[in-house]
Design brief:
Length: 1162
């Protein structure tokens, strides 16, 4: 061991850190930042005895490595280990992606800040019998202090390094080549021999590269659009039809016929999905040269006209100036008259001349403004002419058409199209293409991530091993240091995550405290380890939920500095976590730290009564004539305090008070102290503001936020009255806060000094933090120690790997019994012309040029890549890990104590979980917080779970169907779902199915709930529809229903996918499908066996029923569901289990008289 480590120390002169920037590093850093600076920063952040000299610090580090207890050498490259032509030096053999892992005992670990292991990421170059180490990165981690069991991890000892310390350089080089060439790749995860080939990483990597190339080719059909209208056009979710636009094409491009495109405009960062149709016979070719020439002619004409006006105005100005000077001289001569002249006459002439001079001066001012404005107009016109000439030159290879668009709508937010003018052609208009820009950017990032993963460019060296074999993950027992309250299993999960050598798995079903556990882990990492945490998820909503909970649990900790890459409010519109709110959250935390509880006392008198110096003196006894204790009035402290608060002496007040009645005394005293309170609050506010500014200023000079443990001392409160005043100041801050320069200053400092320690971004977002002109890339410039992928069950393999590369340790948190991943690409259906079809067409076009091998072409044609894109990464690993329920030696923890819902709902949810992971009622479960909800359909109205069976239409709805005359009704009352409205005059809203009878039933249930639960609030109810069309129909029914107050029209109505992660007191689930359907083509009811495969996914059903806390109401044609014997697949560690969820639910609820048949309800 000694010789091996000494070899590294002896080689420090050949360790090159200045040029060893990896290709990934170059793309991020360019030439602006040297790797030396990043290494120096890393050492500064992690070495206790850092001395600000890179050479000395590296030597110091190598000397510590000499004392390592365990040293392991890993080859983290997953495809090719060495290359014959290094990118660093030509004609050299480069062994890339080597990691030396050095683990230390507790004593040596004291030399590091909250770490026990050092990871040297390096390359070795062999050339001309010489070899060099090139350090790429140094990381510091907490790792289990034991040897890794995998045989591909080389345990370094003296014998293995004998060849490196030989005096024969040539022999040493040959030995190095032989040794390093024999070093196996740590994982086979990118080849078919992998133990975990179900992830298909090699195929996915290939797909991301081919899909990136497809998008590059697809991008060539981009064109530009300009609105050809007279005034601004606002577009939102409601489609606007028959709009005239100017379409700009390259001369080589064909005129598009019909598209569904995405419009994106860089200045507003908006994507607008548009349906438009271009009909060639209606197109008008626009001669843009003629328009430009005409506009240039108009500009030149205007210049000539305005130049003439300038000439005339200038002449007029010269004449005015002459008259002005004459009058001024005349006035001056009057002042020179001798005293014996007619004084009165002189003064009269002076007054008249002054008036004339003022009028001349005013006219001159106006003329100067007019001339200046004309000259400015002329200048602008000349600039416009130059721009037009430049535009004309650039447009010579373009063609322009006036086209009519079929329809236009914005999916995301309202946008405004300004009317076209020629100067817009210089900056381009709205970028249009069938090329999906957002999807292209996302998969470009995935392609880069997969390439980096294969090349060994990731933070945790054991990552690939952990993915290939999750049972190989080792754990150390780390004490959790967090003030956040956890139960036993939550605490165990947090400890496993912190002690894991790589990945940890947190299985957190609804209400089990998954987010609480995540917050405790973050609290430990930020406040104990003083390192950064990344929270990521497929959706912004999941990140918002985690941020909101963490903010609430740590609201008194100013050291938690949040940053989220996208400015987006949560469902309640509360917190935004971006650079504009950092200062607001920071100051709010200081307030909470100093005054954790807000007292609502309204009487000013009570504030004075709490003065510590006067706590033994009743205010009546002190202030009112009949109860005065004179010895107290002589107390200097009492007199000074009164003067400080009121501005007058106590004696002075008492003299005035003698003449008052007791009521008058009290009224006078109250008004006096009310004014004093306002004055004192203003004084405190100014004082607090100055202290905050000093704290912010100190951040500029230090790398750490000030120590808030002594915060109270910094603000120097001397009495409980000051504390009370401070509480009111806190309320005023929250009420009157406005964004200002101090927010900008704080955000700049936080980013520059790397004070941001809780970062949120989606799994496909750009991996950087940015403010203004400052941006820092997370992998290289802003290191992430711990990453949490929340709601991970919905994340694809590509999403997960894209972010896992960033962090030293990763926690995957979710519930694999919730919705699985769903990639944007779907399998081709009949007459489908979507992205998948276009991509396969691209593949077939390139089959002949051998750019895509035949076996890969077959893989694409069979659409196997769609299945691979949707492999449930989290579920697969969760079921694969050998689980020991209470063991620290596994990386997996399943939380089972569920606090969300009542027992009756818990029993229904439990059919989705295996025996050892079924939800349990916690010992500290408080059932009293769940109020009874009444649904009065005749019996057992307060049972927490109900089924409202809609298999048959009730009389009222059946009469409506008969009266429409748009459908053929054969006398049956069997219910149906639809692809068209019963009233065929209404517009079809979607291709997915809906059910008007169920929508009618849902509204009937809602009315019943409102009537029988007077304290019910709209925000306590959620309505989940199994299709998007049904959600829209229910919303339409609710909007036009005139028996509801407007507030009830705000009830949340959405799909299962969008409800994941939410919870409501009451949930109504609409299953939509019925026995029969109303066909959109034939317009009559058709009796047939229905496709109910949509309900065979137990995860989807589980999400729907597990959103309810207090009352769950299932609406659907249950008789049909039972007759069709809907089956669901439940994956277990022992294989697949087939269950019948509708049958199980029905039996349980029916046994408690909780089933209502709507057609029998009166």
């Amino acid at each position: 061991m000694k010789q091996e480590i000494n070899f590294i120390v002896d080689l420090k002169s050949t360790v090159d850190t200045g040029n060893a920037i990896t290709s990934q590093g170059k793309s991020v850093l360019g030439n602006e930042i040297k790797l030396n600076e990043l290494l120096a920063k890393t050492l500064e952040q992690n070495l206790v005895n850092y001395n600000n000299n890179l050479t000395n610090d590296l030597t110091y580090l190598f000397n510590l490595i000499n004392k390592a207890q365990i040293v392991e050498l890993l080859n983290t490259h997953l495809e090719h280990f060495f290359i014959n032509n290094s990118s660093i030096e030509k004609n050299a053999i480069a062994f890339k992606s080597l990691v030396l892992v050095c683990k230390f005992d507790e004593e040596i670990s004291k030399e590091f800040k909250n770490s026990n292991s050092v990871l040297l990421n390096f390359e070795v170059l062999l050339k001309n019998n010489e070899y060099k180490f090139f350090i790429k990165r140094i990381d510091f981690m907490d790792l289990p202090l034991e040897k890794t069991s995998n045989l591909k991890v080389k345990k370094i000892d003296t014998d293995m390094w004998k060849f490196l310390v030989t005096t024969n350089q040539e022999s040493s080089t040959k030995g190095a080549l032989q040794f390093l060439s024999g070093l196996e790749m740590l994982s086979n995860i990118f080849n078919d021999q992998s133990q975990n080939d179900k992830l298909k990483l090699r195929q996915l990597k290939r797909f991301t590269i081919d899909f990136r190339n497809y998008n590059k080719e697809k991008k060539s059909d981009e064109f530009f659009l300009y609105y050809f209208g007279d005034k601004s056009l606002k577009i939102d979710k409601d489609p606007v039809k028959d709009l005239i636009f100017l379409l700009e094409l390259e001369s080589s491009q064909q005129l598009p016929k019909k598209h569904t495109v995405i419009y994106s405009y860089d200045k507003t960062d908006v994507d607008i999905k548009v349906d438009f149709e271009v009909q060639s016979e209606k197109n008008k070719l626009i001669k843009i040269d003629n328009l430009i020439d005409e506009e240039v002619f108009n500009c030149e004409t205007s210049i000539n006209i305005e130049s003439g006006l300038v000439y005339n105005k200038t002449s007029e100005k010269e004449e005015l100036e002459n008259n002005y000077n004459k009058k001024q001289n005349e006035l001056n001569s009057l002042f020179d008259k001798v005293e014996n002249d007619d004084q009165e006459n002189i003064e009269s002439k002076q007054t008249s001349l002054i008036k004339e001079i003022k009028e001349f001066a005013q006219k001159l001012v106006l003329l100067n403004k007019e001339i200046s404005k004309l000259e400015s107009n002329i200048k602008n016109l000349k600039n416009k002419i130059e721009n037009l000439k430049e535009i004309k030159d650039k447009a010579k290879d373009k063609i322009f058409f006036e086209v009519k668009l079929k329809s236009l709508r914005s999916d995301r937010k309202a946008v405004v199209f300004e009317p076209f003018n020629l100067t817009m052609l210089k900056d381009k208009g709205w970028n249009a293409s069938s090329f999906d820009k957002g999807l292209s950017i996302k998969y470009n990032r995935y392609a880069a991530a997969m390439s980096n993963f294969a090349a060994g460019n990731y933070k945790n060296p054991y990552l690939s091993l952990a993915i290939e074999n999750p049972n190989s993950i080792t754990n150390s027992n780390i004490e959790l240091k967090s003030t956040i309250k956890l139960n036993a299993k939550q605490k165990l999960a947090a400890q496993k995550a912190l002690g894991s050598s790589s990945i940890s798995y947190l299985q957190g079903p609804p209400g089990t405290g998954k987010t609480q556990t995540i917050c405790a882990v973050i609290d430990h990492v930020v406040n104990n380890d003083e390192k950064n945490v990344l929270i990521t998820s497929s959706t912004n909503e999941a990140i918002n939920n985690a941020f909101d909970r963490l903010k609430e649990l740590t609201k008194d900790n100013p050291n938690m500095i949040f940053y989220k890459t996208i400015k987006k409010e949560n469902e309640n519109g509360n917190n935004i976590f971006d650079n504009t709110t950092m200062y607001k959250h920071f100051v709010s935390a200081i307030f909470e730290n100093l005054c954790p509880e807000v007292d609502d006392k309204s009487e000013i008198l009570s504030l004075f009564n709490e003065l510590e110096e006067l706590n033994d003196v009743e205010i009546d006894e002190l202030m009112f004539k009949n109860f005065i204790k004179k010895e107290n009035l002589k107390d200097k402290l009492v007199q000074e305090k009164y003067f400080y608060l009121t501005g007058e002496s106590l004696d002075s007040f008492m003299k005035k008070a003698v003449a008052f009645s007791k009521e008058e005394q009290e009224e006078f005293l109250m008004s006096k102290f009310e004014r004093a309170f306002i004055n004192y609050q203003d004084k405190m506010e100014n004082e607090f503001d100055n202290k905050i500014k000093r704290i912010i200023s100190s951040l500029s000079d230090n790398n750490n936020i000030v120590d808030f443990k002594s915060l109270k001392a910094k603000f120097n409160f001397t009495s409980s009255n000051e504390v009370e005043m401070f509480k009111n100041l806190k309320l005023n801050f929250k009420k009157n806060y406005e964004y200002s320069d101090i927010d900008i200053n704080f955000a700049n400092i936080a980013l520059k000094k790397e004070l941001i320690n809780v970062i949120g971004l989606t799994t496909s977002a750009s991996q950087e933090i940015r403010y203004g002109d400052i941006s820092k890339q997370l992998f290289i410039e802003y290191p992430i120690y711990f990453e949490i992928v929340d709601e991970v069950s919905k994340s694809t393999t590509l999403e997960i790997i894209n972010t896992m590369l960033l962090a030293n340790k990763v926690m995957l948190a979710g519930d694999y019994r919730q919705l699985p991943p769903h990639a944007e690409l779907e399998k081709i259906k009949d007459n489908d012309k979507g992205i998948t079809k276009e991509f396969i067409d691209y593949v077939l076009r390139h089959k002949s040029d051998n750019t895509i091998p035949s076996y890969v072409v077959e893989y694409y044609i069979n659409q196997k890549f769609i299945d691979d894109l949707n492999v449930p990464f989290f579920k697969k690993h969760a079921l694969e890990i050998n689980v020991s329920p209470n063991s620290i030696n596994t990386s997996y923890t399943a939380l089972t104590d569920s606090y969300r819902f009542v027992n009756e709902i818990r029993e229904l949810v439990n059919i989705s979980y295996c025996d050892n992971e079924k939800l349990e009622c916690p010992q500290d479960f408080d059932s009293s917080k769940f109020k009874k909800v009444i649904l009065d359909f005749g019996f057992n109205s307060d049972y927490p779970v109900n089924i409202v069976d809609t298999s048959m239409m009730d009389g009222m709805f059946y009469d409506y169907v008969k009266k429409t005359n748009q459908v053929i009704c054969d006398g049956q009352q069997t219910s149906f779902d639809q692809k068209m409205f019963i009233d065929s005059s209404r517009e079809i809203i979607s291709n997915s199915r809906f059910n008007e009878y169920n929508a009618y039933a849902v509204l009937k249930i809602l009315k019943n709930l409102i009537k029988n639960n007077p304290n019910l609030k709209p925000e306590e109810i959620g309505i989940i529809a199994m299709t998007r069309s049904q959600a829209n129909v229910i919303q339409q029914y609710l909007n036009i229903e005139n028996t509801f107050d407007d507030k009830w029209k705000t009830v949340k109505i959405d799909t299962v996918d969008n409800f994941q992660g939410r919870e409501k007191e009451i949930i109504i689930v609409d299953t939509v499908r019925a026995k029969r359907n109303l066909d959109s083509n034939k317009e009559f009811l058709k009796d047939e066996s229905r496709d109910l495969s949509h309900y065979k996914k137990i995860e989807r059903l589980n999400v729907a029923i597990s959103r309810a806390k207090n009352k769950l109401i299932l609406v659907g044609a249950f008789e049909n569901h039972l007759n069709e014997e809907v089956k669901s697949v439940l994956d277990t560690r022992n294989g697949e289990e087939i269950i019948s969820p509708f049958e199980i639910w029905y039996k349980k609820i029916e046994s408690q008289l909780g089933v209502f048949k709507l057609w029998e309800v009166k």
